[in-house]
Amino acid sequence: MPFSTWPEFGTWLLGAPLLVLVTILLALVARWLSHRAIRTVVDNAVRRAEDNRLSTSGRLLGVAAERRRQRALTMGSLLRSVATFVVATIAVLTVMSLVGLPLGPLLASAGVGGVALGFGAQSLVKDFLSGIFMIIEDQYGVGDVIDTGEAVGTVEEVTLRVTRLRDAAGVVWFIRNGEIIRIGNQSQGWAMATIDLQVAATEDPARVIPLVERVVAEFYADPESAAKLLEPPTVAGVESVAAGAMTIRVFAKCVPGQQWGVPRQIREKAKATFDAEGVRLPPVTFGAPPS
Fold first, then answer.
1. How far is CA 238 from CA 207, 245, 246, 260, in A?
2. C-alpha span between 249 and 168 (Å, rounded)
């Protein structure tokens, strides 16, 4: 490059390229600040929900506080996605203006192209609309255990386009919001655990049912176990008698997420009580030997 052209090159370098670089840096700073502000608001909301849950005597109110905490985390995830999109759009338009691209015709062409693209990207628009209504209606949130039809797992992140959840085997599923036809939320409000206890069909129900009632009463009397329940478990009675087994059914209204652990603990206590009281269990049946 001739020496005489250096001043012109320096002037150009300090013009549009420097402004583009400053715009990109400002966009990164704006994104960081917006995410920091959102994170602060979400952390404060989560902290208030935790304080309400710990200071509340009623278990149902504690569950509501936990729900508010989950919704705050979900809204934080959504707001971060929206903030990133808005900042990136403004930065791109500003850079295009700095490099001399006329925005008027470009925006007009983008409007026409957007209509055409809308017909071809209906699934994307459907995902966004589904994500917006899902957040507004509080169908599920971060930390909920949901059944989407395709996968069952714990929600780890919610965005406008996809929901990320992890199943019991540790597999991470990315599910488009527009493809979710129905949602089964196992963590909203409360959960009901159904426990079936089997004894030999020859046992007297008048003897076995009081033993089961004693088991659930002792289970609820334990403060650590009672914290997982919303009310004392109820013994419904004999559910069925078949194949040499009599089934006693128990219902336990649980705090969300405890409907899997509570039945195991009640079965363990029931087994110990049956052994101590000499209650016989159903006979073990084996398949027919191979011919």
1. 12, 11, 7, 22
2. 26
Between β-strands 152-158 and 145-147, what pairing exists: parallel, antiparallel or unpaired? antiparallel
Give per-residue burial for 219-240: e unless 16+ CB within 10 Å, then b.
bbeeeebeebbbeebebeeeee
Task: Let me know the angle formed at the C-alpha of 53 by 193 and 267, rounded to the nearest 5 degrees.
Answer: 25
More confident residue, 188 or 259: 259
Residue 164: C-alpha distances to residues 82, 159, 226 (Å): 17, 8, 32
Angle between helices 122-136 and 59-98 (to 10 degrees): 140
In this predicted model, what pLDDT tens digit does every residue of 55-85 receive, in sequence order? 544 555 555 566 666 667 777 777 887 888 8
The Cα 75–Cα 142 span in angstroms is 9
User: What is the phi/psi pair of residue 223, to 5°?
Assistant: -60, -40
